[in-house]
Amino acid sequence: MNSLQQFQQQWRPKMEVLGDNYIFSKECSITGEMYVFVVNQVKYHQWKDDCHLIQDVFPEATPEQREFLMTGITPTEWNALALFPDE
Questions:
Q1: Taking the CB of residue 53, how many other CB atoms lie within 10 A of it?
Q2: Confidence (pTM)
């Protein structure tokens, strides 16, 4: 596995199927706690495959949940990144 694959594996959430839903989960690299977000499969594919805006497909989700779905970065990890802005 090359370094890019290792990086992607570290940040990419695990996806599982449960009924009509996808469960995305990942251990936070800072707290060690599991972060989980559940989405409907149809809505997920509207966003991912049909190129709809994530905020339109998932208006009920928080911005943090939508960010996690897009990037795999937990809210705690984003907050830690915000402590080190570009100089």
A1: 10
A2: 0.80
In the structure encoding, which two tokens stand for residue 22, read together?
Answer: 């996808």
β partners of residue 21: 18, 40
**Segment 6-15, tens digit of pLDDT:** 655 667 899 9
- What one-character DSSP code corresponds to residue 24? E
Residue type, 86: D
Beta carbons within 8 Å of 83's beta carbon, 6+ residues apart? none
To which residue do tokens 């449960």 refer?
Answer: 18
Q: How far apart are CA 35 and CA 30, in angstroms?
A: 11
Three-state DSSP class for 16? strand
